[in-house]
Predict the 3D structure of the following.
Amino acid sequence: MPAQAFDARVNPAEERIRLGPLEIHFLVTGDQSNGSIAAFELLVPAAQRLMAPAHSHDHYEETIYGLNGVLTWTVDGRPVEVGPGQALCIPRGAVHRFDNPGSLDARALCVITPAAIGPEYFRESAAVLNAAAGGPPDRTKLAEIMRRHGLTPATPPTPA
C-alpha cells in the first residue's frame, strides 16, 4: 500500500473567529493532527473582564503560552499571571477562567491535547453572542454548547 501524501502547510486550519471582544485564530485542529493536538492563538483586548463562566474539562489538558501582554488565569481559585515567554498547563478537571485586567492587549498560544475541542465550539458560542445583539447572551444556550463540547461550567447557568 503506498504511503499517504502529507500536506505540509503552515497554519492548516487558518480560521479567525470573533467571540465578543476575543479573537480566536485557529492554527491546527484535530482533523489536521490525527486528533493529537489543537492549537489556536487567543487575542484578548486590554481591560477585559470576560463574561464566560469558569469551567473545567475532563478530556484534555490546556496549555497556555504567553506571547504579548499579560493574562490573569484563575485556576482552582488561584490567580496566575501568564506573560510573554511563560507557560501554564491547566490539568484535566481544574476549574479555570481568564481576564485581561492590564492596559495592553494580550495574545497567547493555546494548545489542547488531545484535540478534544476545535473551532466548532467557538463558532457556536459566537452565534449565541451575535444573536444577543449587544445585550446579555443566553447563558443557558452557552452552557449547553459548553457541555456538548466537553466543558463543564463551574456554576449553574442563570436564566437569560
Observations:
- The mean pLDDT is 90.
- The radius of gyration is 16 Å.
- The longest strand covers residues 61-68.
